[in-house]
Amino acid sequence: MRRDRLKGTPQIYHYLKSYQEDPSSRVFAPLAEAYRKAGLLDEAIDICRDGLRVHPHFIGGRVALARAFFDKRFYDDVVKELEPVVMDAPDNLVAQRLLADSYLILGRIAQALTAYKVLLYFSPKDVELAQLVVEIETKAYEDGALVLQNDPIQLKSYSVKGALSAISDDPMVKKQEWMKKIEGLQTMLLRVQRFKLAHRA
Which pLDDT score, from 0 to 100, does residue 130 have? Predict the structure, then answer.
């Protein structure tokens, strides 16, 4: 039955042959992508995991794995795979988009907006993306999911605010969580700026 599903996918045979000849090569990533496009998501995940044991820092392999996870609707796994990737390579737009979409689906609105805005930073002429950011942000404010606040050094950022947590959480705990979010956002933006400056030189 799976053999029938592979009909018309010569790429799989091409990459599989190369992979079998050299299992330590990075060809596992395009092979996994060919599997994914053929609907063989479990095979794509397995081959990525095998390849990443040999090449744990290979970004292409991690993105291929995240694509398969996304198609399987394993959004938490997408986030786990891609958060380190975008920290090291913030201009990897495929990873940023998958991460942003996964955050949004998981209801992590503040993080989704940050990821979408990093995308927009690298693609400032993307009108559709800009409109998406505005729509998400507007809807989140209307629903009370986001509140604009000032941090101690007068920088603005976003935090998630739920009605129950606003009533029951310890103020000191909430302040500490807020400071961690600010530090995380500042670190991400600094990395993006440094990355762009390094690539201009």
Answer: 94
Name the nearest CA neighbour of 124 among 112, 135, 116: 116
Task: Give the residue from 48, 36, 47, 45 showing the smallest Cα distance to 11.
Answer: 36
Q: Are 82 and 91 in contact (CB under 8 A)?
A: no
- Where along the chain do its domains lie? 1-72
Q: Which of 18, 12, 82, 77 minimizes the C-alpha distance to 40? A: 12
Which structure tokens are listed for 45? 């995940």
Joined together, the tokens standing for residue 61 give 């392999």
40-44 contacts: CB < 8 A, separation 24 or more? 40/2, 40/5, 40/6, 41/68, 41/71, 41/72, 44/68
Torsion of CA 80, 86, 87, 91, to 10 degrees: 180
Q: What is the pLDDT of residues 52-90, one digit of tens each?
A: 999 999 999 999 999 999 999 999 999 999 999 999 999
Whether 69 contacts 33, CB under 8 Å? no
CATH 1.25.40.10 fits 1-72, yes or no: yes
**Nearest to 160, CA basis, from 117, 112, 114, 110:** 110
Q: Residue 158: what are its φ and ψ, rounded to 5°?
A: -120, 150
